[in-house]
Amino acid sequence: MRIADLETPALLIDLDIMERNLCRVAAYAREHNLRLRPHTKTHKIPALGKRQLELGAAGLTVAKVGEAEVMLRSGTPDLLVAYPVIGERKLKRLMEVARETQVTVALDSMAAAEQLSGAAREAGLEIGVLAEVDVGLGRVGVAPGELVRFALELMRLPALRFEGIAFYPGHIKRMDEAGLATVMRLSALVSAMLEELRAAGIEARIVSGGSTPALFHSHLIAGMNEIRPGTYIFNDRNTVLSGACTLADCAASILTTVVSTTVPGQIIVDGGSKTFSSDPPPAGAEVSFGHVVDAPEAVFTKMNEEHGYIELRGPNQRFKVGDRVRIIPNHICAAMNLHETVYGIRGGEVEQVWRVEGRGKLQ
Questions:
Q1: Peptide bond into 264 cis (omega under 30)
Q2: Radius of gyration (Cα) for the chain, nearest Å?
Q3: pLDDT for 75-128, tens place per residue?
Q4: Which residue of 115, 120, 227, 305 has the lowest C-beta tally within 10 Å?
Q5: Which CATH superfamily is domain 3-9+243-355 in?
């Protein structure tokens, strides 16, 4: 099948770029002796999780139990659920996953830990746990000063195995001078936390962190031995704006069709908020919901559910109804969750068709 034969909107994955991204991060992890457990929230496709494992990943990361159930199809020997699992039914499902592969859960409360402990004990299983620490994002995680107390409490619970700590440095958006300084402060904080754990006689076998924007500075964080990047497999416009990659590293784009040109200086494409992520760019960047590959100076200014408004800028930008326009979305993880099927391309041909099996697995 040729790309030209696809109906639009269609989410395209450039296979050569994706493979280059995967190999680069796998090589980086090997070079710096970092355990790679990539987050599958970006691609949501077991076949791509399998490819990450083939390239050396030790396991995979998910957020929800539904994603864990899907990623079993990758054949992963190890799953980290980087999200507290709350509720009897979800925990029973998680125990079924744990009968098929090793499972670890990151959590930040005794309420979550006690529920997990009870479910594991009832199932006759042992589940690994990571104590989640807030290192600056202000989303989840115990305060660093509470880590030792929390770890000791976790270690007292039956059917749980304390494995170490987890954190997400999502507050580091750009790797400029200020971002690098924040990485160094994070390194000092992680070192101090690990020293406090050692002083209390607690071994943190796994120190799990990392994000795509700060990915290639992970080796600067003293004591961290596992990284969980997700977006790196495809990258997106926001990753470009963070300075973590270039447009040439963006494997994913969305192919759209021009459906209207009635407003001078503007085209309407057949993809809106049901096709693209509505995530804005980082603060300071001009608001645009994607990079228009076929008209780099154009700005994707607005979306309705099925309409994308593109303001044309620069000379010689002429489009007619029926023209195809490719757009790199701001946030590929959210965009993937809007598409049932994506297409792996090479040149002008479609070589792979994947169902997004983790789409909508929010429970």
A1: no
A2: 22
A3: 999 999 999 999 999 999 999 999 999 999 999 999 999 999 999 999 999 999
A4: 305
A5: D-serine dehydratase-like domain (2.40.37.20)
The DSSP line for 103-155 is EEEEE--HHHHHHHHHHHHHHT--EEEEEEB-SSS-SS-B-GGGHHHHHHHHH
Neighbouring C-beta atoms of residue 324, cutoff 10 Å: 16
The pLDDT tens digits for 52-71 are: 999 999 999 999 999 999 99
Cα separation of 8 and 342, whole Å?
A: 11
How many angstroms separate the first and last alpha carbons of the chain?
A: 35
Q: Which CATH number fits domain 15-235: 3.10.20.810, 2.60.40.1080, 3.20.20.10, 3.40.605.10?
A: 3.20.20.10
Q: How many helices (H) and strands (E) does the chain have?
A: 9, 17
DSSP 3-state assignment of 222? coil
Say what the pTM is: 0.96
The per-residue pLDDT for 210 is: 83
CA atoms within 13 A on the CB side of 161: 10
